[in-house]
Amino acid sequence: MTDTTQTERSLVLVKPDGYRRGLTGEVLRRIEAKGYTLAALAVLTPTREQLGAHYAEHDGKPFYEPLLEFMSSGPVTAAIIEGQGCVAGFRSLAGATDPTGAAPGTIRGDLGRDWGVAVQQNIVHGSDARESAEQEIAIWFPDHA
Ligand code: DAT
Ligand code: MG
Questions:
Q1: Does residue 30's CB lie within 6 angstroms of at least one atom of ligand 1?
Q2: pLDDT tier for residue 6 given thresholds of 50, 70 and 90
Q3: 114 Cβ inside 6 Å of ligand 1
Q4: Does ligand 1 lie within 6 Å of residue 122's CB atom?
Q5: pTM of this prediction?
Q6: Alpha helices for 55-106 (secondary structure H)
Q7: What is the 3-state secondary structure (H, E, C) of 1-66?
Q8: 13-24 residue pLDDT tens
Q9: What is residue 126's three-state secondary structure?
Q10: Tens of pLDDT, residues 36-45
């Protein structure tokens, strides 16, 4: 079980589709409304190097190249969020990977849909474990690693 006595961090990205659609504020609003703290915030267009490190686990999969192409197509908003249980908590706020079937009430369920590219444009990324969160923070916010 998660150790709830220890504050943890997670790495959130509002992906290029979310940024382009002006949904950064809505995503940050939901994070703050849940009670998590914004510890760092940046708008940047990801480099190939950052994306290669961030999505290393998917290297070789059929969707890897299109994913990197999409993720480098424009600015993203990157955030470090903080709070007990925030890694699992943000995954819960984000909803299932495929926005078509993601539950209503979640970011992906309320705001995402299939735009002809299946699950690719699903608005947000959130770390899936404490360890990956710390690895991802080092990629996007080396000053906060
Ligand atoms: P998540 O973002 O929910 O952690 P993931 O780590 O399995 O999901 O995949 C990373 C991203 O890659 C995901 O947000 C969208 C894209 N992706 C995953 N599976 C895909 C698929 N079958 N086809 C196209 N894109 C996919
Ligand atoms: Mg993932």
A1: no
A2: confident
A3: no
A4: yes
A5: 0.96
A6: 64-71, 86-94
A7: CCCCCCCEEEEEEECHHHHHCCCHHHHHHHHHHHCCEEEEEEEECCCHHHHHHHCHHHCCCCCHHH
A8: 999 999 999 999
A9: strand
A10: 999 999 999 9
